[in-house]
Amino acid sequence: MQEDVLDALKNRPYFFDDGIRFECRRCGSCCTGEPGIVYVDDSEITRISEYLEITREILIQRFLYPFQDSYSIREAEDGRCLFFENGCSIYPVRPLQCRTFPFWFQNMRSVEAWDDVCLRCPGVGKGRLYTKEEIVETIGRGFGVYLQALREVIKGG
Predict the structure, then answer these.
(1) pLDDT value, residue 11
(2) What share of the chain is helix, strand, coil (3-state, %, to 5)?
(3) What distance in Å separates the CA atoms of residue 99 and residue 138, rounded to the nearest whole number?
(4) Rounded Cα gap, residues 126 and 16, in angstroms
(5) Residue 123 and residue 22 in contact, taking contact as beta carbons nearer than 8 Å
(6) Number of C-alpha atoms within 13 angstroms, CB side, residue 104?
(7) Domain boundary assignment for the chain
């Protein structure tokens, strides 16, 4: 099903047919504010723990909580990702979900959704031009995480 959805996305017109410029400014706009789910899989847990030079067990205990078949990153009371303190402390090994922002399915589904992202993210309109093909491919890479988070929202978690 997921591949069918993504194949259908490749061949239709979008507001981003001419591409979109984007460059992460590492400002934290997407790492702070309203609460959210930042899914991390087993390989990401390993990369983050190695990068921070702590055991997986300590990483899980201090920074993660169980989510679906793996974990999500905890947030501070203000909604800030625990890894964001004057910048992302795990930027080189940040999870797929973070690496694919702002080209998430929910952000690219309409001009209105994209306009909301543009208001929050100073990196939009800056940097290199991402082609429609690259954007659709990035949406596809993050689509599984989107579906997992959607399931959690639907079940009321």
Answers:
(1) 80
(2) 45, 15, 40
(3) 9
(4) 15
(5) yes
(6) 19
(7) 1-26+101-157, 31-97
Q: Tokens representing 76?
A: 């501070």
Can you name the residues that pair with 124 across neighbouring β-strands?
A: 22
Per-residue CA distances from 131 to 8, 68, 98, 103, 152 (Å): 17, 32, 19, 11, 31
CA–CA gap between residue 21 and residue 130 (Å, rounded): 6
Q: Is the pLDDT of residue 157 over 60?
A: no
- For 11-66, the pLDDT digits (tens) are 889 999 999 999 999 999 999 988 888 999 999 999 999 999 999 999 999 999 99
Q: How far apart are the first and last CA of the chain?
A: 24
Smallest CA-to-CA distance from 37 within 137, 148, 155 is with: 148
CB 122 within 8 A of CB 29: yes
Would you tell me the crossing angle of helices 2-10 and 132-155 to the nearest 10 degrees? Answer: 140
